[in-house]
Amino acid sequence: MPHWTKLVAEKKQRQLKSIPPEWLVSPPPDSTLDVTGFPETCGLLTAREIEITNTSVDVLLEKLACGDWTAVDVTTAFYKRAIVAHQLVNCLTEIFVDRALARAAELDDHFKQTGKVVGPLHGLPVSLKDQLCIKGLETTMGYVSWIGRYAEKNAVLVDVLIECGAVPFVRTNLPQTVMWPESFNNIFGRTTNPYNRSLTPGGSSGGEGALVALKGSPLGVGSDIGGSIRIPSAFCGLYSLRPSYGRVPYCGALNSLEGQDSVHSVFGPMTNSVGGVKAFMKAVVNAKPWLKDPLAVRKKWQEDEYNLADHGSGKDLCFAIMWDDGVVVPHPPIRRSLEITKAALEKAGYKGFSRVTPLLNYAHLAVVVDWKPIKHRLLADTTRNIWNAASAEDYVITTSVTGEPIIATMELDNSNAAAAPFRPKKIGITAYQLWQVQKLRRDIRKEYLDHWEATVSETGTGRPVDAIICPASSYAATPHGKNRYTNYTTVWNALDYPAATFPVTTVDPTLDMKKPRHVFYDDFDKGIYDMYDPETFKNAPICLQLVGRTLEEEAVIKMTEIVDGALAAAK
User: Fold this and answer.
1) Which of 122, 174, 414, 456 has the fewest CB atoms nearer than 10 Å to its CB?
2) Contacts of 154 (CB under 8 A, 6+ apart)
3) Confidence band for 133, pLDDT divided at 50, 70 and 90
4) Which residue is catalytic, options 127, 145, 183, 204?
């Protein structure tokens, strides 16, 4: 077998050749950190293509369904912008222009002949994280050992999206092993953040985060086992959803830790509007994925749940704010975003949504209370113990085929980089020891359920807290290699609570000055505090999470719409 570096060089050449030469541009120098404005000024996109790529998923679907825009025109516009985005932040892995445009043309022919759409996502280009197999294409998942492995069939979710009328058109970058909150591998290299290329877009769905932020895709599919949808969405200013286990089909996709059946990875949407999140989830679950994936949950879209039937029909909602998790105190911009959100909800509560916006015609939001986190450190540690029971062995076996090195740090300079706390130790644990860890997690899940139920005594609504609003991370997008704490997302994976992200603001060095702290939870908390410099994080997006209960995706989406509406009305 050739040396692994030769395999990489050959793969990179094939990737470059897959880009139409007329779509190559002259990107700005590396010293230009914020490249979000470049796609619209580079000269490649026409005015109409700029209009198309700046359009939300809801409106795109309307225009495609009435024939105002063709699937070929929409796919071409997003493809050109995606290729520009790739030249700016290195976000793509597989590029298959002819195949995507042929699919779009088929959809246009169907519409021309019948006057009807193929499905609820008719003509919508969808980008996919490089785990979702597409027949005839390689899926490397960032492993050199998987170069040359061509899929014999689509992943179930790809089939479902095609059935719904979507146009899969690119696949996106991720870290080697997938088990990193940043995005770097030995094949495609490092993806950077379009708001500041010295910062990470997060991970492991960082290619999706960067691409969607640059509007090179209207809707991306990421995966999430410990925050891998929500972290890049938060770092790149996006709406997203981490659904409950099995709500979105996973069968036929590649993954690390396959056979680890306790804390599942899930697929979910990443997009520039909450309407895009709803469109994806409604289309996918209504396609009856449980007929194609034995682990998919048999639950179609529940409109009564979306209308908050279990939450007082949306009247007198009670949101709980989690200011910190009892382990690490968030940086000042995160705290400010929580304060902004609380104030917006309270303002909406006094006014009544009927006078704020016709979309959210609810009486008022009665209460915003504080959330008291319990055992978050233990929950996250337990989850990592489950993953790391055999993850080191998994990585060694996979990389041994070619001898590529296992990446130990995401730092730019790895000469003296400290090992990230979430990376596995070299020795696993026995099956019996794993059972004890899984038993502990089961018991904490029951404790957390009881804890949530007990909040009925403080809401004043006769119900427990309707949803938790909390940080998606303790900081904004970090310099490369510095994203070392993921508990703010990982705990919800452990509990299997659906969680959406929504943008609130950006880092402002004037408003987000570093404040002195004299009391810390421990040295790790102090280390996170010490890394904050407002100039380093300047202009980075700030998102929060809205967390509901298991299989409450519809309600989580609706409550995210409500919070988003309150924030918009308060500006």
Assistant:
1) 414
2) 133, 134, 135, 162, 252
3) very high
4) 204
